[in-house]
Specification:
Number of helices of chain B: 7
Helix content of chain A: 25-40%
Number of strands of chain A: 17
CATH architecture of chain B: 3-Layer(aba) Sandwich
Strand content of chain B: 25-35%
Largest sheet of chain A: 9 strands, mixed
CATH architecture of the largest domain in chain A: 3-Layer(aba) Sandwich
CATH topology of the largest domain in chain A: UDP-N-acetylmuramoyl-L-alanine:D-glutamate ligase
Distance between the termini of chain B: 41 Å
Structural class of chain B: alpha/beta
Number of domains of chain B: 1
Structural class of chain A: alpha/beta
CATH superfamily of the largest domain in chain A: Mur-like, catalytic domain
Largest interface: A-B, 36 and 35 residues
Order of helices and strands of chain B: EHEEHHEHEEEEEEEEEEHHH
CATH class of the largest domain in chain A: Alpha Beta
Oligomer: heterodimer
Number of strands of chain B: 14
Strand content of chain A: 15-25%
Radius of gyration of chain A: 21 Å
CATH superfamily of chain B: Class I glutamine amidotransferase (GATase) domain
Largest sheet of chain B: 6 strands, mixed
Radius of gyration of chain B: 17 Å
CATH class of chain B: Alpha Beta
Strand order of the largest sheet of chain B: 2-1-3-4-14-13
Strand order of the largest sheet of chain A: 2-3-1-4-5-6-9-10-11
Number of domains of chain A: 2
């Protein structure tokens, strides 16, 4: 039965693309799940080599793409939802349209328990939990509870790879049983000067006492312990030390694991991408790839769509940096602060459902850090005005802030006035808009063809 | 002139970027040459109500809110009552708003509130009340009308599981134009009593509603200096545009 339903769903997807309706990314999966709610389990049975799931608030797509690169380096080509469509229908679509013996799926935080219960993965990588679209996901604590319950259900059957530096994630190790491994950053020289405003893990998950931080690297990711019950950050099995940040061009670090040390030259910027790399490396190791080979593959990888992407448009080099929540935006801001001033920006804030209808979060991101370094600023999107207002109150020079609600007019203006280098900071649906605008200009392929 | 703000539980009650409100007040004071002083007051700490003109408390996650409720009653209840009776401006948002009332019942547990105003909150079955919201403030016949006497609009975003009901003699902050308000049923939003305001319009509501920020500044300065000042107007074109965009979002639902 599932074969016939799958064939039908596939053909509708082909038809949709052929008629140029676009957005055919997940249509086959949506149709299939309508026909058979349990399709993911049934198609998943073909993955005799098992599957790996990746979830996190920030870095899902990048981490999955890193892991795919590593696996590619050793000749493994998993079924992978690489277009970043990470709800059940995105997973179902990948299962329908690709052939392979193992699966690699990034999964939306809220959908992770359902997908994991159906797919029964060999490995689950959990990267981080930050406050994000509270109107959609609810509180980070609620998600952490749901993930811990999943870990307890899968204990003994699924190997969990956890970020030791995120107390919300590391705590899941108390439920996931033996076979759990951890990754983290050891280089204390990379600590933030102080904890950031958007700090999401204040209380010990075990006893409720306030956590003590010796240092934080990204948001609430860092070295912590609880003076109430003695809980401590687990010692990572794979870690990064001797880290050096090279602005937009990447990160250098020494990767330490039981297999020894190797030198990583990651071509993606920021500590947040180093965390993504550590997650991918620790998971690859769990999947049997030697660390030294995995590190070599990562050192040669390219950025994925909208996650630090660089496109040449005429005389201007456009770099795209997705922003969608305070922690992620803060890392983008930190990376940009290393760029030579003046920094020209196109900032697009939308409040559609996939962005989160609530734009409050922009007041938690530390735009103040760029106040002295910005050049010309163009604010656009459905909530352009509030974005511009935020920047005004972050101390950005008001006379350099342009408010143009229409994204295309805003992009044209930003390109026309830029000094050769323009940075785009869009929210998720604004990124899709930007991608389509660039496609019309002939500068980037439409993402579902990628 | 000087405005002394007390930020209550800034590390616990800040879930929706509440610091945006304080940042907004601070700049609007400083641009007018008004000295602005922020004092943080967290768990276990007490405060002297004579030292503050404006008290702010934001929203928090359930776990933080429970811990804060207990601490409020242990270390700050009396000072909060005195501050309110003495006419200090108080703005409590979302979870902070719920804690102004008698109690908050959720999942078989009752969190005791401060009892500053006659209202109760209950987590009833049914979805959370989430979405953009707009309310009309200063209804005809509201005994606690705003000083300048005109109806004004507040636009923002709400996200709350609790349903709040006001006591018979308690006035709401406003009437819901778009969105859910206190409980999604009676058409009212927030609470207002003397210089105290509680509302479900969460997080950075002041940047979207500069007029309320200025109203709070004037009230706080009156509390400190004994006279309500005429605030110097500011160049507010982005503020007005942000208000309009929030209102449009609420109108479109």
């Amino acid at each position: 039965m599932i074969r016939a339903k799958a064939a039908f769903a596939r053909s509708v997807g082909r038809l949709s693309r052929a008629t140029g309706k676009g957005g055919g990314t997940t249509l086959p999966g949506r149709i299939l799940l309508k026909l058979d709610k349990d399709a993911i389990s049934k198609l998943g049975e073909d993955l005799t080599g098992g599957s790996t799931l990746i979830s996190a608030t920030n870095g899902k797509t990048t981490t999955a793409s890193m892991l795919a690169t590593i696996l590619d380096g050793v000749g493994r080509h998993p079924v992978h939802n690489r277009a970043g469509s990470n709800m059940t229908w995105g997973v179902a679509t990948a299962l329908l349209e690709q052939k392979g013996t193992e699966g690699l799926f990034e999964v939306d935080e809220a959908w992770l328990p359902e997908v994991a219960d159906r797919l029964k993965p060999e490995t689950i990588l959990l990267g981080n939990l930050f406050r994000d679209q509270l109107d959609r996901y609810g509180e980070t604590e609620t998600l952490a509870d749901a993930w811990a319950a999943l870990a307890a259900r899968r204990s003994g059957d699924t190997a969990f790879v956890l970020n030791a530096d995120d107390p919300l994630i590391a705590d899941i190790g108390n439920s996931s049983g033996s076979g759990t491994t951890y990754f983290g950053i050891e280089d204390v020289s990379q600590a933030l000067p102080e904890l950031q405003h958007a700090h999401d893990a204040k209380l010990c998950r075990v006893c409720g006492h306030e956590l003590t931080y010796d240092r934080a690297f990204v948001g609430h990711l860092g070295h912590y312990h609880c003076e109430g019950c003695g809980m401590r950050r687990p010692a990572p099995d794979l870690s990064a030390t001797r880290i050096s940040l090279k602005g937009m061009s990447g990160v250098k670090a020494t990767i330490v694991s039981p297999e020894g040390e190797s030198e990583l030259r990651l071509p993606l910027p920021g500590l947040y991408n180093l965390y993504n790399a550590l997650g991918a490396l620790a998971t690859a190791r769990q999947m049997g790839v030697p660390v030294v080979e995995a590190v070599r593959s990562l050192s040669g990888m390219k950025a994925v769509f909208g996650r630090v992407e660089r496109i040449e448009i005429g005389e201007t080099s456009l770099s795209i940096l997705l922003i969608k929540n305070p922690a992620g935006a803060n890392e983008v801001i930190r990376t940009l602060a290393l760029e030579p001033a003046p920094i020209d920006l196109w900032v697009a804030l939308n409040d559609r459902i996939a962005d989160g209808r609530d734009v409050s979060w922009i007041w938690d991101a530390d735009f103040e850090m760029l106040a002295e370094r910005v050049g010309k600023i163009t604010c656009t999107g459905t909530r352009a005005a509030e974005m511009a207002l935020r920047l005004k109150y972050a101390g950005w020079p008001l006379e350099r802030i342009n408010l143009i609600e229409d994204p295309e007019a805003a992009l044209d203006r930003a390109l026309a006035t830029s000094e050769g280098q323009l940075f785009a900071m869009p929210t998720y649906t604004a990124l899709l808009d930007l991608r389509n605008l660039l496609a019309e200009k002939g500068d980037a392929g439409r993402y579902w063809e990628a | 002139m000087k405005l002394r703000l007390l930020s209550l539980y800034p590390d616990q009650m800040n879930i929706y970027a509440d610091r945006g409100n304080i940042l907004f007040l601070q700049h609007r004071c400083e641009w007018r040459g008004i000295q602005f002083e922020v004092t943080r007051c967290g768990p276990g700490e007490s405060f002297n109500p004579d030292d503050f003109d404006l008290l702010y408390m934001g929203g928090g996650q359930d776990r933080d809110q429970k811990a804060v409720a207990k601490d409020l009653n242990q270390t700050k209840q009396e000072a909060m009552k005195v501050a309110k009776e003495d006419g200090a401006a108080i703005l409590a948002v979302c979870g902070g708003y719920q804690l102004l009332g008698e109690s908050y019942e959720l999942e078989g547990e009752t969190i005791e509130g401060l009892g500053l105003v006659d209202l109760k909150t209950v987590r009833e079955p049914g979805p959370r009340l989430i979405g953009p919201v707009a309310i009309e403030v200063n209804l005809d016949g509201n005994p606690n009308a705003l000083a300048d006497g005109e109806a004004k609009v507040l636009a923002g975003f709400e996200n709350h599981g609790g349903r709040t009901r006001l006591g018979p003699d308690t006035a709401p902050l406003g009437k819901v134009i778009h969105g859910h308000g206190n409980n999604g049923q009676d058409g009212f939003e927030g609470v207002r009593q003397d210089n105290l305001i509680g509302t479900y319009l969460h997080g950075p509501l002041l940047p979207k509603n500069a007029w309320l920020a200025d109203h709070l500044i004037a009230t706080a300065l009156e509390h400190h200096h004994g006279e309500r000042p005429e605030l110097e107007p500011l160049e507010d074109s982005l503020e007005d545009a942000a208000h309009q965009a929030a209102l449009t979002a609420a109108r479109n639902g």
